[in-house]
Amino acid sequence: MGNKRFRRVGVSVLGLGFAATALTGTGAIAGAAPVPGTGSSSGSSEGDVLDLLNTGSAILKGEGPSGPPAVQQCNESTKSGGDGVTDTIHQLGRSGPTSFVLRYETYDVPDRIEVLYQGGRVADTGFVGDETNEGTGSITVRLPAGLAQSVLVRVTGGTGTVWDYTVGCPA
Question: What is the reported pTM?
């Protein structure tokens, strides 16, 4: 391996532990293995580690009966996922710090749209939408410095909700 420096990166999220050996300064993953004491007893592939790092801890919420969140590219419109909570991962193509515009329409049933980056909330519309203004709007979402190249958008709606939104690509 010569004089190249390597470091071990550990990530533990909801009992899943991974460690990756990465070239310092390059972000390239050289190998992956479970981290002892984190609840993981099986190995993982490099892709699993990259997915975990790119989407943050919040995506694991969707591992229930409905399966993992859908994945979309930025600038693709996302339509109503039904009543309750809908999680969608949006690939941005770059990591933070950056910003993008989130355009939304929540029509006549109030819905809440949250944007999470690396497991932390970075934007929240609150509950918007009623028969008067129909929840039409947009916000600029600013991401802090980070490794992830995607965000998780979580929409929480009531019974009979209809909504759509678009995560714009960073400028």
Answer: 0.63
